[in-house]
Amino acid sequence: MKKLSLNLAILLVVATAAWAGELGDAAAPLKISEWVKGQPVDLAAVKGKQVVVVEFWATWCPPCRTSIPHLTDMQKKFKDVIFVGVTDEESATVKKFVTKMGDKMDYVVAIDDNRQTSDGYMKEFGVNGIPHAFVVDKQGRVIWQGHPMAGLDRALDLIVAGKYDLEAEKAKAKKEAEAEGKQAAAQEKLQKLAELIIAGQDNE
Predict the structure, then answer these.
(1) What are the catalytic residues?
(2) Which residues, 6+ apart, have CB-to-CB distance to 168 below 8 Å?
(3) What is the mean pLDDT of the chain?
(4) pTM of the predicted protein model
């Protein structure tokens, strides 16, 4: 029975990875309760015209505060790309922070509508940590996702130049997901073994 439970736990880890969104999938719409800075962005309206970067952040997150000036620099560099920072915090908190940041946070800032946007991106792709960015191409597909200071600028260089290889990135992402799945399964096994040892039942 214990062995069966362990196998089921491992299968659940693999199944969860299989349900996650994949690069090339259609981007979820931006469900926003308030646009704090910049003009509202409708992905359907800019489809075929502009690339959009959707980045999730929070005022209380130190890595997010570090990445904000970098995102501003990229917005200045990639003038035809729309950068949208999405948070689920209270309006007053966000407005105060954005005002304090001034020109250091010079891109669109929005407040999520009951986490609907986060669910469409973060939850869909199985991402838990912030800051995290998603690139939506002109076809309305999510074609890159990751930490905004870990390859986003390079990806945008290739995307804007028309040299981005989506299939290669999909293969790379799949390989990374498989490795993470194996690591999670191994950790699950170790945790189960530790529980058995503590209980004095470390049999086969």
Answers:
(1) 61, 64
(2) none
(3) 87
(4) 0.79
